[in-house]
Write a structure and sequence with these properties.
The strands form three sheets. Strands 2-1-3-10-4 form a five-stranded mixed β-sheet, with helices on both faces. Strands 7-6-8-5-9 form a five-stranded mixed β-sheet. A three-stranded antiparallel β-sheet has the order 11-12-13. The chain is an alpha/beta fold. The chain has three domains: 120 residues, 3-Layer(aba) Sandwich (D-Maltodextrin-Binding Protein, domain 2), CATH 3.40.190; 82 residues, D-Maltodextrin-Binding Protein, domain 2, CATH 3.40.190.10; 75 residues, Porphobilinogen deaminase, C-terminal domain (Double Stranded RNA Binding Domain), CATH 3.30.160. It starts with a strand and ends with a helix. It is built from eleven helices and 13 strands. The structure holds the ligand NCc1[nH]cc(CCC(=O)O)c1CC(=O)O. The site of ligand PBG has 9 residues, from strand 8 and helix 7.
């Protein structure tokens, strides 16, 4: 039996999504033995560094060590949350497969009587550290207090057991994948809070010359998801922004037409630039790049630079 080693971070979410990937791969390749290897990243080890790096717009602190493990052949396949992956691929590695996306939306989880965004009273304290969520929530509800909240899903849910937070915002995908869908109180409409580019999708990364692993992971590639997230990520790349920017992007495909919506916000909620484009899904990359160029023309650059302080 051949053995393929799958690398991942060790968080509950990372392990849950990697076990899901391995189960799917095993269905396609029953004669292959898949082993999971956990790898700790700078983001896992040093939360203080994470905060300051985040403010400088540094990219890839969730993925660097895992990519090193691919390049040195300690692992053959890496499983990432696509939204944590920088838009530039390192030399020698490629995203060889993007499995079918789960729900891309953000969700709200609140205390009793605060289980919907509309129910939150003025001044309610909402936990999130995402600059995107802060920017768009402040624009929609300037009366809310947005309070920093970092950590893995368990840490963030635990914050609701303290007096410091009335509600928190998370990605639906993380809760769905860790079998905590029942904790979700409200799915937030993308018209109110546009998700992050690639949110809800996974990326399976391999060495670019490892034909065997590429073939293995490609068995669970999903073309429709790929078109959507390619449009979203080209938009992000075209803005010159990373996952730490106040940028949202969400693509849908209906009746053979891909529609891409993009937002760039001011961190203080004073402004959100919004734009939409649509076209042939085969042109997904160009649609993303064009939307970015359109928004740069409308002043998006200043908002992105301001958020990096
Ligand atoms: N930035 C952390 C992160 N990276 C991926 C997810 C889960 C959702 C996904 O797979 O897109 C989360 C948690 C969150 O944003 O709530």
């Amino acid at each position: 039996m051949r053995t393929v080693t799958v690398g991942t971070r060790g968080s509950a979410l990372a392990l849950a999504q990697t076990r899901w990937v391995v189960a799917r791969l095993k269905e396609e390749w029953p004669d292959t033995d898949f082993r999971i290897q956990t790898i700790s990243t700078k983001g896992d080890r040093d939360r203080a560094a994470l905060q300051s790096l985040a403010q400088k717009g540094d990219k890839g602190f969730w993925v660097k060590e895992i990519e090193d493990a691919l390049l040195t052949k300690r692992v053959d396949i890496a499983v990432h949350s696509l939204k944590d992956l920088p838009t530039e691929q390192p030399q020698g590695l490629e995203i060889a497969s993007i499995p079918k996306r789960v729900d891309a939306r953000d969700v709200l989880i609140g205390k009793e009587g605060m289980k919907r965004l509309e129910e939150l009273p003025p001044g309610a304290r909402v936990g999130t550290s995402s600059v995107r969520r802060k920017a768009f929530l402040r624009a929609y509800r300037p009366d809310l207090q947005i309070i920093d909240l970092r950590g893995n899903i368990d840490t963030r849910l635990a914050a609701l057991g303290t007096p410091d937070y009335d509600a928190i915002i998370l990605a639906a995908a993380g809760l769905i994948r860790t079998e905590m869908r029942h904790r979700i109180d409200e799915f937030l409409d993308p018209d109110i809070l546009l998700p992050a580019p690639g949110q809800g999708a996974l990326a399976l990364e391999t060495r670019a010359d490892d034909d065997l692993s590429i073939e293995v992971v490609y068995a669970i590639h999903d073309h429709a998801t790929d078109d959507r997230v390619t449009a979203e990520r080209e938009f992000l790349a075209g803005l010159g922004a990373g996952c730490m920017a106040p940028v949202g992007a969400h693509a849908t495909v209906k009746g053979g037409v891909l529609t891409l919506e993009g937002w760039v916000g001011a961190l203080d909620g004073s402004q959100v630039i919004r734009a939409t484009t649509s076209g042939d899904p085969a042109e997904c990359a160009d649609l993303g790049a064009e939307l970015a160029a359109d928004m740069l023309g409308q002043g998006a650059q200043n908002l992105i630079e301001a958020a990096h302080g």
